[in-house]
Amino acid sequence: MEHFSIIQALCRSAMADPSPAVRKQVERLRDALAKGGEDKQASSLAGILATSQRATEVAPSRIERSKAQFAGETLGPNTPVPVDRETAAALAEIIFPAQIQGRPPLFNPIVTQAVATIVDEWAHFEALSELEIAPAKTCLIYGAPGTGKTRLAQWMAHKLDLPVVLVRLDGLVSSFLGTTARNIGNLFTFANRYRCVLLLDEFDAIAKVRDDPQEVGEIKRVVNALLQNLDSRRDVGFTIGITNHPKLLDPAVWRRFEVQLEIPRPDFAMRKAIATQFMPPIEAPDSHLQLIAWFTEGATGAEIESLVRTYKKAMAVRTTERLDLLNTLRQFATLNAARVQSERRALLFSEPSRLFRAMRDDAELGFSMTDIAEITGKDKSTVSRQLGKAVKAEEES
């Protein structure tokens, strides 16, 4: 098979942390090669599959040893969760590892490496213990809405093979005096009893600055109760806090978290990777993925996923052979005006000559006339005339 060395490298990378679907496709490729008489190449893929299987069989034993360091009972599907005494509403949701997507969220290499370090610390608990140090047990994840913070926290729990006790802190707030602090205490008592990852979402709902003149004495008592319970859990289990508004947090809250991880908005390369991840089963041309990444400057992963859904819908209902990508982008920009950077939106609805010029001259995009023609459905001579028109207009201005 031509370029098999590249295919082999891709398979090896994919099998480093494979989903069942990825493993199945590599097995299909192995079988197809064997059937076609490519025995050497089929054997190579069989070796990659076997190595991955052995790693999968070994990894849980390390995780099991790390899980043993979490004191407490095992959470089960029928374990009752604490409830608010006045409303009887559940104070938490239990999410088990099997319910969490095993595929890691996409971040830039620096964030990805930092997250891997946190997980690896628990996988190598014994080695750290020999040095009389412990893995990080508290982590605050912050960033703009839609950047994948909650998904990241759940994926970390999945890697540790521990259930998540998911708490949205705004749901703990009660109008009854003293009830909110009691809810917090009951919740932490529950989490400390079981082996789990305690995930405190919407963390800023309670952990606000205690000196805020707009807040009454009750919320200050609530923050104090939260701080005390965080301290009591420090040596019990793994706790993750999530917030979209880090500036609202009390400085004392920050000090309770060993890891303070900011999730940035994705850059061009990551936006393209995110669009690629959400695109299947559609196989979009690379130029389309690049334009989607360019168009979503400043967007979050959730917003890119929304645009990809619009693209896939357009592909499903198109009545012509060619998808008009620019019209699809304009449709998205019209229906999601607040989610699109104003500069990109203005270019999209500008004269074709101006848009084509931007597509050609942008350092990240750098489209050729052939690329622009393919995306717009124009011939290269038309694209060339439009580009010339843009240059002339610029000179005249």
Automatic annotation (TrEMBL):
Pfam families: AAA (PF00004). It comes from the Bacteria. InterPro entries: 26S_Proteasome_ATPase, AAA+_ATPase, ATPase_AAA_core, P-loop_NTPase. Gene3D superfamilies: 1.10.8.60, P-loop containing nucleotide triphosphate hydrolases (3.40.50.300). Coiled coil: none annotated. Keywords: ATP-binding, Nucleotide-binding. Residues 135-267 form the AAA+ ATPase domain. Belongs to the AAA ATPase family. This is AAA family ATPase. It comes from Sphingomonas hankookensis. The lineage of its organism: Bacteria, Pseudomonadati, Pseudomonadota, Alphaproteobacteria, Sphingomonadales.
